[in-house]
């Protein structure tokens, strides 16, 4: 789930700095997505606002400190093939069809790092 939070932060950073208000909006979106996709006992941890905020803030610092290439390499290295597909799917869901051109490019770079085809843009 950490990789899903990192992917969401990466997508949010596509248009520049990730502001605290964006982190809070991402947390709301991620809670909704993760509550339907995480099964079992760990749902409370992964949908916990405190855990998600901590993970989002850490991801934001890692991206700023390490740069995009290293950040994406680490993110991709933290998941297997199934996890990679889930991470990209969550990133697309977080965007919720409201993908700006710059965010679509970021989704393409995320997909490339995960060794997946880029998502097809939805018609406006």
Radius of gyration: 13 Å
Ends distance: 29 Å
Mean pLDDT: 82
Which parts are unreliable, with pLDDT below 50 for 5 consecutive residues or more?
Answer: none
From the helix content, strand content and strand pairing, which structural class follows? mainly alpha
* Largest β-sheet summary: none
**Count of domains:** 1
Q: How are helices and strands ordered from N to C?
A: HHHHHHH
Strand content: under 5%
Helix content: over 70%
| Assembly state (oligomeric) | single chain
Shape: globular
Strand tally is 0
The helix tally amounts to: 7
Structure notes:
The protein has 7 helices and no strands. It is mainly alpha-helical and 124 residues long. The protein has one domain.
Q: Main traits of this protein?
A:
124 residues; globular
Kindly summarize this structure in a few lines.
The protein is mainly alpha-helical and 124 residues long.
Summarize the helices and strands and which ones pair or pack:
Layout: H1 2-12, H2 20-37, H3 43-46, H4 49-66, H5 68-77, H6 81-95, H7 101-113
Helix pairs in contact: 1-2, 1-4, 1-5, 1-6, 1-7, 2-4, 4-5, 6-7
């Amino acid at each position: 789930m950490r990789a899903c939070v990192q992917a969401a932060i990466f997508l949010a950073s596509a248009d520049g700095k990730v502001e605290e208000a964006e982190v809070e909006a991402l947390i709301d979106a991620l809670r909704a997505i993760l509550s339907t996709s995480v099964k079992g006992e760990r749902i409370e941890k992964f949908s916990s606002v405190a855990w998600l905020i901590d993970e989002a803030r850490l991801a934001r610092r890692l991206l700023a400190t390490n740069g995009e290439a290293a950040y994406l390499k680490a993110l991709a290295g933290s998941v297997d093939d199934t996890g990679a597909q889930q991470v990209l799917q969550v990133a697309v869901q977080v965007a919720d069809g409201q993908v700006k051109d710059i965010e679509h490019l970021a989704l393409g770079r995320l997909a490339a790092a995960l060794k997946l085809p880029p998502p097809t843009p939805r018609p406006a």
